[in-house]
Design a protein that fits this description.
alpha/beta; 506 residues; 22% strand; binds ligand BES; Leucine Aminopeptidase, subunit E, domain 1; binds zinc ion; single chain; nine-stranded mixed beta sheet; Aminopeptidase; 14 helices
């Protein structure tokens, strides 16, 4: 799969040749947009008739391909529904373009154009809409074909998307929206790829190679701690998780200082759970759906991809991404229930369940992160099955100790269409984590599993402003949607990048 190249142009879409011209339309809209009216005239009123007959209503997700039979400049039109105008959200534009790009691919054409809409959702700008359109197109076009034999046939890829605006004054915002949309979507594509690769390929050692590639491209500093370094530092939790595997653990640190970042600025530090496969360890998982656990590295992939996007966008900030990396296996030397590990922070943990490994590797990741005195510390992790139970597939679980940071993450989520939902981080729940033999245990028993996991993490962040995102609910999609594939979704990536964009760009 090639990544679609996107450009913005000022002009009248109806007078330009196009293989497919996408026209966006709200459900129940009165009349046609300027461009649609012009094309309707070229087609002798065919669009008006179609709409009158109810063949196309403009419902969210609806799409209709119309051949123009040489009567218009565009060979085909694709009518894409946005839903009712009063409910219009940025995500409708992503969904519309996600559906459109799939139809374009089916038609075996390589380029398409879209007209910028003239109605914008409440409190959004031309920039936001352009960004959403680009994201929808690139993400909807995603396919993972690395392991499919092609039998010599070359797949037809959608190569080019052109955004049209008739208003020259909108061009700068549209161009910036395209730049941001390409960066966030390409980052998500990277995450989906990393998570789709099976665990026999995407091992901890291979993750280091991926980090090296990002560091090289982005010109960011890369430091990799090996097992002996972790032993010296005392990362007993990460080492404990890795014990059952033949794959040595890694601890990856990437550091980016944007050219315009203030010298004295405290960094934003991101920590991502990077378990390349989670069998559960000695507390072995059941076989059903265990293959999904190749994506238990989503958090790490996301902080890596966010680093690349921040550098590509030249964001003026100081950013650090940390990936504690291990494979959770039930080998002969594996941790056993009841084992006690001493974490980097000095706190001891009784490991009652080796399947609650994410919080263990994160405890060392977070403790390490506090050394940078972050302005804000965010961890992101496929942490708990309880998150799936509580939130289903449409919300990321959010916890935090800083109201301002929470508000910023919430807003970034709304903008990105990767929404978060706050859960309580109340100290009362800590009684569930008390251990008879160590400072705490790594599971909280029945009830509030997402909360006790978050509360466990909170013991390792000191007094840093901190956010924890549980993405176990969203990291894997059971079915294909407009711009989400079946399988790894990369949800969380655009949320993180948008959070950084909102902090640093106007
Ligand atoms: N990686 C899993 C959580 C998970 C579950 C992610 C489903 C995505 C989908 C995590 O390491 C885990 O196994 N958590 C346990 C914790 C329990 C033993 C307290 C869980 O949620 O079952
Ligand atoms: Zn687990
Ligand atoms: Zn896990």
């Amino acid at each position: 799969m090639k990544i679609i190249h996107v450009e913005g142009q000022v002009g009248r879409a109806e007078s330009e040749a196009a293989e497919v011209l996408v026209l966006l339309r709200c459900e129940g809209a009165s009349g046609l947009t300027q461009e649609a009216a012009a094309i309707d005239a070229q087609l002798g009123g065919q669009l008006t008739k179609l709409i009158k007959r109810g063949e196309f209503e403009g419902k969210l997700g609806e799409g209709l391909l119309v051949h123009t039979q040489g009567k218009a400049k565009a060979t085909r039109l694709f009518l894409a529904g946005l839903g009712k105008e009063k409910d219009l959200r940025l995500d409708a534009f992503r969904q519309a373009l996600g559906s459109a790009v799939k139809r374009v691919r089916q038609a075996k054409v390589t380029s398409f154009t879209v007209v910028m809409p003239d109605t914008l959702p409440h409190e959004t700008s031309v920039l936001d809409v352009a960004q959403a359109l680009v994201e929808g197109a690139i993400l909807g076009n995603y396919q993972f074909t690395a392991y499919r034999s092609t039998n010599g046939t070359k797949p037809i890829d959608v190569e080019r998307l052109t955004l049209y605006t008739s208003q020259r004054a909108h061009l700068p915002q549209m161009t910036e929206g395209i730049r941001r949309g390409v960066a966030t979507a390409e980052a998500t594509v990277l995450v989906r790829d990393l998570c789709n690769h099976p665990s026999n390929v995407m091992t901890p050692t291979r993750i280091v190679r991926e980090a090296q590639a990002v560091a090289k491209e982005s010109g960011v500093r890369l430091k990799v701690l090996e097992q002996k370094d972790m032993e010296k530092l005392g990362m007993g939790a990460l080492l404990g998780v890795a014990r059952g595997s033949h794959e040595p653990p890694k601890f990856i640190i990437l550091e980016y200082k944007g050219a315009k970042a203030k010298k004295t600025e405290q960094p934003v530090v991101l920590v991502g759970k990077t378990i390349t496969f989670d069998t559960g360890g000695i507390s072995l998982k059941p076989a059903e759906n265990m293959e999904h656990m190749k994506a238990d590295m989503t958090g790490g992939a996301e902080v890596l991809a966010t680093m690349r996007a921040a550098a590509r966008l030249k964001l003026p900030l100081h950013l650090i991404s940390i990936l504690p990396v291990a494979e959770n296996m039930p080998g002969g030397r594996a941790m056993k229930p009841g084992d006690i590990v001493t974490t980097l922070s000095g706190k001891t943990v009784e490991v009652q369940n080796t399947d609650a490994e994410g919080r263990l590797i994160l405890s060392d990741g977070l403790a390490y992160a506090t050394r940078y005195k972050p302005a804000v510390l965010i961890d992101i992790a496929t942490l708990t099955g309880a998150c799936v139970v509580a939130l289903g597939q449409f919300a990321v679980g959010m916890f935090g100790n800083d109201e301002q940071a929470k508000e910023q993450v919430r807003n970034a989520g709304l903008r990105a269409g990767e929404r978060v939902w706050e859960m309580p981080l109340w100290e009362e729940y800590f009684e569930q984590l008390r251990s008879d033999v160590a400072d705490m245990r790594n599971i909280g028993g029945r009830g509030g599993g997402m909360i006790t996991a978050a509360l466990f993490l909170s013991k390792f962040v000191g007094d840093c402003p901190w956010i924890h995102l549980d993405i176990a609910s969203t990291d894997w999609s059971e079915r294909e949607r407009a711009y989400l594939p079946k399988g790894p979704t990369g949800i969380g990536t655009r949320l993180l990048i948008q959070f950084l964009i909102n902090r640093t760009l106007p």
